[in-house]
Q: What sequence folds into this?
């Protein structure tokens, strides 16, 4: 028996999403069991089955070096601060003097 | 291993900040065993429920209802299948071990599947009242559920229970609005099923229940039970049925329906597999497991052939490249 992971994609939109897993002796049987277990009400229009043994995994330790890379992000706060300064300077100019 | 926690306090912090646990994580043993037990119980209940429904397919009146019941049975067995998959991946027991223990009478499953469905109206009461209670308690688990794989399959289970409920109320409606005999038939079924359905939620939660602390359960048993009573008392009365509780009253101050004191002995008996129909149900399920052995054997044989063929293929291919 092999364990398969089931992925489904809905017609027209979204990405393939993981739906669950099942055990089957071969690919044909896996396809049949997947349809009857996971797509009884049209939950997907396309299906991928991947034998669990064939999944190449990257764990947190492997991914960790890229967790902390602030130079790859920019939240735009410097520019926003400048625009805010400009706006308040402009409104100070037009304010009637007391 | 994906992630680990220094101690239970750190784990709790992770849970409290919205963390979701995945199967590869080095989760605390206490979490693993409690969550596993809970999922196993849920899986067992779906399977026992589905098998009971199966028994009623030949007796279900009319082709349309028969179709609905066939589909519902397939859903319930499907729910068991998904849950056993999730449970087995926790590495505590294999699926076969869980099923064999269940059929040997060593495991627990929902109280409501320890009673006999006497007439068709019982089946309707189960499809409506019992599915509604199961639906409410599963939805409360789905609401938070810190174990990722369980939450993902619950999404689908809860959606399907929604269909069962609507079918259940349709069937209830036709009995309620049918002949006086049909109406009376459901009244009698209600007398058998009201209390088991209310008891499905269990006695008041222990404040120290680890499943609440770890956000597998999002709500205390008594809160869910109370909400169920508030919904179903007026609904059943609206269809002209009488709730089998002489002390049932509407409390103006709290604006709530209050029932008489609940006797928890029947629930406890079912948890020891000592309910009125436990033995017959377990024996039936176990007989079914033996009768369907040939299917599992055929699948295993196909799997063996597949791997033998693959090995032979590989040998032929490497012989080919050598030549
Ligand atoms: Fe179910
Ligand atoms: Fe159901």
A:
């Amino acid at each position: 028996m092999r364990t398969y992971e089931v992925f489904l994609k809905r017609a027209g939109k979204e990405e393939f999403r993981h739906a669950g897993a099942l055990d089957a002796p071969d690919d044909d049987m896996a396809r049949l069991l997947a349809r009857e277990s996971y797509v009884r009400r049209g939950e997907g229009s396309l299906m991928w089955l991947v034998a669990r043994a064939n999944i190449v995994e990257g764990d947190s330790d492997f991914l960790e070096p890229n967790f902390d890379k602030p130079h790859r992000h920019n939240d735009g706060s410097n520019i926003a601060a400048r625009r805010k300064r400009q706006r308040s300077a402009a409104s100070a100019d037009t304010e009637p003097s007391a | 291993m994906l992630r680990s926690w220094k101690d239970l306090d750190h784990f709790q912090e992770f849970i409290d900040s919205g963390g979701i646990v995945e199967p590869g994580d080095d989760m605390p043993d206490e979490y693993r065993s409690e969550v596993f037990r809970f999922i196993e119980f849920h899986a067992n209940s779906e399977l026992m429920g589905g098998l009971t429904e199966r028994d009623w397919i030949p007796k279900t009146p009319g082709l349309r209802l028969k179709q609905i019941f066939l589909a519902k049975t397939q859903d319930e067995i499907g729910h068991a299948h998904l849950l056993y998959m999730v449970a087995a991946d926790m590495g505590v027991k294999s699926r076969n071990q869980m099923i064999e223990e269940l059929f040997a009478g060593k495991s627990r499953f929902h109280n409501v599947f320890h009673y006999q469905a006497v007439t068709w109206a019982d089946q309707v009461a189960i499809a409506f009242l019992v599915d509604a209670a199961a639906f409410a308690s599963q939805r409360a688990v789905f609401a938070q559920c810190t174990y990722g794989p369980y939450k993902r399959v619950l999404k689908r289970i809860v959606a399907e229970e929604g269909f069962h409920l609507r079918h259940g109320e349709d069937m209830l409606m036709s009995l309620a609005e049918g002949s006086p005999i049909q109406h009376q038939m459901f009244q009698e079924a209600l007398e058998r099923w009201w209390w088991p359905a209310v008891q499905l939620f269990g006695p008041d939660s222990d404040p120290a229940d680890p499943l609440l602390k770890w956000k597998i359960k999002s709500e205390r048993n008594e809160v869910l039970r109370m909400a169920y009573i508030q919904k179903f008392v007026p609904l059943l009365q609206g269809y002209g049925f009488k709730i089998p509780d002489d002390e049932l009253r509407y409390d103006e101050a709290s604006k709530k329906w209050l029932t008489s004191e609940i006797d928890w002995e029947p629930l406890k008996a079912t948890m020891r597999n000592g309910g009125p129909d436990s033995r017959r149900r377990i024996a039936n399920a176990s007989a079914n497991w033996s009768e369907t052995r040939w299917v599992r054997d055929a699948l295993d044989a196909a799997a063996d052939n597949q791997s033998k063929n693959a090995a032979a293929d590989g040998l032929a291919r490497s012989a080919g490249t050598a030549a």
